[in-house]
Write a structure and sequence with these properties.
The longest helix is centred in the N-terminal third of the chain and has 17 residues. Helices cover 30% and strands 24% of the residues. The protein has one domain: 3-Layer(aba) Sandwich (Rossmann fold). A 7-stranded mixed beta sheet has the order 3-2-1-4-5-7-6. By secondary structure, it is of the alpha/beta class. α3 links the parallel β1 and β2.
Length: 210
């Protein structure tokens, strides 16, 4: 199974990716769910699993500045120490994020078979463009369920196998179709699965821990 090479990290923040996968639509969906939690007086923990260089989490951290007087925490997790270092460097150079907010972002090195977070500790979890790399997808989804709180939201985004003229991403034979991803989620016990029409090159699914 092909794994992303950290030496190619510049691809993660390329103009092509921003064109076909602008972060804003997904960030708005995450923000909407976070606001629902805040209405109930809850703190919100968000986990970006396979965070890479912070393509989604850095703009989310900027958005989180709007959550005045709210407890919002981000776990940035990646298999690669190098990618976590690149994320940290980008965060330090980003003038749009105050230094006081850095403490709300925790960097965690994870493993493919284990997420080093406590049981029932995450409200919202995102896994973007990583699912196709996972060897045992069903086992890993059980690990995701373990760290999600009951009713927690899981965003699964990945390159479409249906995209016959991909602008970037892995070869078609390594991709997962939208239908196949939905089937694996159902088999793994996720419920309320919805397709969000955010990107033409990728499927975006949102589901809940049952």
């Amino acid at each position: 199974m092909h794994k992303f090479n950290p030496s190619e990290h510049k691809k993660l923040d390329s103009e092509t990716r921003y064109r076909i996968m602008p972060p804003k639509p997904l960030i708005e969906e995450i923000e909407r769910i976070a606001l629902e939690y805040f209405k109930n007086g809850e703190a919100v923990t968000f986990a970006d699993l396979g965070c890479g260089s912070g393509f989604f989490s850095i703009p989310l951290a900027k958005t989180a500045k709007n959550f005045k007087n709210k407890n919002f925490f981000i776990f940035a997790l990646d298999l690669s120490e190098e990618m976590l270092g690149i994320f940290k460097d980008r965060l330090k150079k980003d003038a749009g994020i105050e230094k006081t907010d850095y403490g709300k972002i925790k960097f965690v090195k994870c493993e493919e078979s284990f997420i080093p977070l406590e049981d029932n500790s995450v409200n919202i979890l995102l896994m973007a463009n990583v699912f196709h790399e996972i060897e045992d997808k069903r086992a890993y989804l059980q690990e995701i369920k373990r760290v999600l709180k009951e009713g927690g939201a899981f965003f699964l985004l990945d390159w479409k196998k249906e995209d016959r003229e991909p602008a970037m991403g892995p070869p078609l034979e390594e991709r997962v179709s939208t239908e196949e991803a939905i089937g694996i989620l159902k088999e793994s016990g996720f419920k309320d699965i919805k397709i969000l029409p955010l990107y033409s090159s990728s499927f975006t699914l949102i589901s809940k821990k049952s």
